[in-house]
Amino acid sequence: MEETLTSLEILQKAIKSEVEAFQFYNKLQEVVENKVLKKKLNFLKREEKKHEKLLRNIFKNQFPKEKIKLPKKGFTPLPTIEKIEKLSLESLLEAAMEAEEISEKFYRENSILINDENSKRLLIYLSSMEKSHYQILKTEYDLLTSFTSYEAYKKFSLEHLGP
Amino acid sequence: MEETLTSLEILQKAIKSEVEAFQFYNKLQEVVENKVLKKKLNFLKREEKKHEKLLRNIFKNQFPKEKIKLPKKGFTPLPTIEKIEKLSLESLLEAAMEAEEISEKFYRENSILINDENSKRLLIYLSSMEKSHYQILKTEYDLLTSFTSYEAYKKFSLEHLGP
Q: Which end is more exposed in chain A, N or C (fewer Cβ atoms within 10 Å of the end residue's Cβ)?
């Protein structure tokens, strides 16, 4: 049975998820060698940081008397930081794409449960931004998987997409 | 009847379209007051500049002996620079979204006509990037159109998405 979250819990879980997404992209951009992808991951990392801020503001508006208590885990199933160096880039991009899809759905579905009109708008806005993130990752994923090896992809990126 | 373009003409038309898209976003980012949107348009503008470069490189690889001759118009129906200040933000975003959709289709369809494997890959890559651009614009468009006035949208952006 799925647990029913209160809007306070939803927001806390969302903040935690954005923190985790930031940490994930932050580590991933350190690890990847391809500069084009590194830049894209840096962009995504900064976006997730902005989302965290935005959610903290929604929380403050909705629950001015409450303190934010982050749960142990967010709602996205991202690999732990320790695992990042052990996984292939293909698996990492797949995990990130899945997390963005789940985020998109989470924000869209939960926007219905929030009464305040502006907070609702912001959740829909976040949902739509996660959809762009998914597409940014998919562009890179499709390019990577069009090659038979990671080395061939790296060589192509360096030669055609610039250093 | 639709005209059939050679791969040389396709590339020249694509380069011209990216130049036009760059000019469009460049002017639009000057005109909009909302800082979040301004940043996004700046991002899009820089991306189109990179696409132009990428296409020029494909051209050089495919036709090392030819000089690039840009046609009068690209393939995207963007408003002229003079019209930008006369149109509503809603119409401008709609035009930009349509242009990104047409670009996505144009690159995907024409990737089939190019023989060289790497140039083909790059056109598919461009197509997929235009899809992300569409989604970035749609996020902002949906937010804008959720308000009854441009002023309300501007006020919301300033208060909730930061200066």
A: N
